[in-house]
Amino acid sequence: MSDVANKATKSEEAGKFKAFVKREIGRVTALASLVVIFTFFTIMRPVFASWANVSGGILMSTTVIGLMAIGVTFVIITGGIDLSVGTSMALVAVIVGKTVMAANLNVWSGILFGMVVGSLLGAINGILITVLKLPPFIATLATMKGAQGLALIISDLKPILFTTDVKGWDSIAQGNIIPNLPNAVLILLVAAVIASIILNKTVLGRYTFAIGSNTEATKLSGVKVNRWLIAVYALCGFFVGLAAVVMTSRLGSAQPDLGLGYELEAIAAVIIGGTSLLGGKGTISGTIIGALIMSVLINGLRILELQQEWQYVVVGAVILLAVYGDNVRRRRAGETTN
């Protein structure tokens, strides 16, 4: 009996291990890709691996993409999409800039205001999708263009300066609470930890996975899916608002024409990190790895002095590979595609 029990135990452990590998394959693959890409650029240009470039170049550029990608992760896990995160970031930055100047707000009030505005913009996306029954792609495409136009209108086509007029605003991203580590990176790490707790330890996180896995079954179980979807899109907007604050601190200004294109990098980071486009699967840690891959790739191409038009081509190819990889993972897992 003991031999039979041991065999059963080993078989069960082997099954759990295989399930773990299938579940974590996207994140492990992304981490391995990050190491390979980083090693390649280091060999090509040793200065690439210097702490000055890693902290001031790679990690700093990861912060904005990473914060937006964290929010997008929740949305994609539900089976949705948000194309508006880039231009919404620009709109939040402009609104915050105008309000901070007009009301003479301090740094902390400005940060809080940015996150509130971002959350409201995200909630609008959720309402368009749940109340008006618009497909997420169409709804967020419309708000993407709307946010782009409003940012230009509100700013009167001019950048809004922060550095000289708001004391301490530059320290939000560029200060150093921890020596040699920019505050923006610390903000990203804290945001990632909080987002991971929300996704894995709260009711919102459980319903996020449930909606993405089977929306109809979740409705039948008594969950008010529409309310939770609005909450998910509002949470995405919250992180977009935080990204806007970090961006304005990095640049010292709110640039109304900035933001278009960031949504693709954020979505690519999420998919590269192992989140499934069909929903029901994803991790925050995988998303951060994906954001690092995007930043390492862009930074490395610039150090190699590759022409910008070719940089776009390479980034586009990476996005294609990320989506293709997601399809392969789903087929291997026995999922069906439409």
In short:
One of its GO terms (cellular component) is plasma membrane. This protein is mostly helical and 338 residues long.
Descriptive account of the structure:
The chain has helices at 2-44, 51-77, 85-103, 107-130, 136-155, 171-174, 183-201, 203-213, 215-220, 225-251, 262-272, 284-303, 308-332, and strands spanning 160-161, 253-254. The protein has 338 residues and is mostly helical. It has one domain. A two-stranded antiparallel ribbon has the order 1-2. Helix 2 packs parallel to helix 7. The longest helix has 43 residues, at 2-44. It starts with a helix and ends in a 6-residue tail after the last helix. It is found in: Cell membrane. GO terms for molecular function: transmembrane transporter activity. InterPro entries: ABC_transp_permease. It is a multi-pass membrane protein.
